[in-house]
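FAQ: What does the model actually see?

It sees only this:
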Amino acid sequence: MYNANKVRINRMFNASGKCLDVAIDHGVFNEYSFLDGLENMDHVVKTLVEAGTDAIQMNYGQADVLQKIPGKHKPALVMRTDAGNPYNAQTHRHMFNIPAHMEDPVLAAVQVDAACVVVNLLLLPDEPELHMQTVRNISKIRELCTQYGMPLMIEPLVMAPNSEKGGYQVNGDKSLIVPLVRQARELGADIIKADPTDNPEDYHEVIEAARCPVLVRGGGKKPIDVVFAEAHAFLSQGAHGLVYGRNIYQHPNPRKIVKAFMAMIHEGANADEAVAIYNDPE
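And it is asked to produce this:
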């Protein structure tokens, strides 16, 4: 039987069965610090297309920047379907995360020829209603994805208290991440974009809980040697690829970082080899 889900997933994943998805969908969360490096979207997208990444994660309102580029050889579009305020530096009186296109967010993705949609599954301290909102979002979007043959990527995020660093940060506790990943799978994820665990050697438990392709979420900006070392550690545990944003678009040479990541994901390069690729003057 014809499987539209599989056809679209094949547009994301290289012949190796793995994927580098560069996330530049940060503007929808209304946080000023996220926009550093994303001021000129035409330039950012052009750079990523030329770098040859497998996929680019964007929102409906910016998808035209990618899809107006002519020719067949461009990254697959992964379209975010929700918007909210969980990433802001201040704690809000009302925390929310809702579908960005209330009536039919997946139809919007079909209209811009997305290969996949992504939605959050949030677990924040003392915010049970926010968690409930995201479960409801997923339930609605899962039904629509089935209707349209659209793969669903769920992003289960366990966050530490806002008070710790002035803005919700990743909580790498595997005892929280693994159950949330399992919940994402139970809710119908085709792909999971999961947080790193504090100890990379625990990440196989995330892979086992998912029972579908897992892409490791990058998070906040770090020194490039740390980024490559961490990425290699999680890939070695069985991750099917990476979803990195600020660690690519906020660095001086995003194209070289993409090239290094692609070598790690698809060719098995280690962290030292990735640093060498990044530093190669060509």
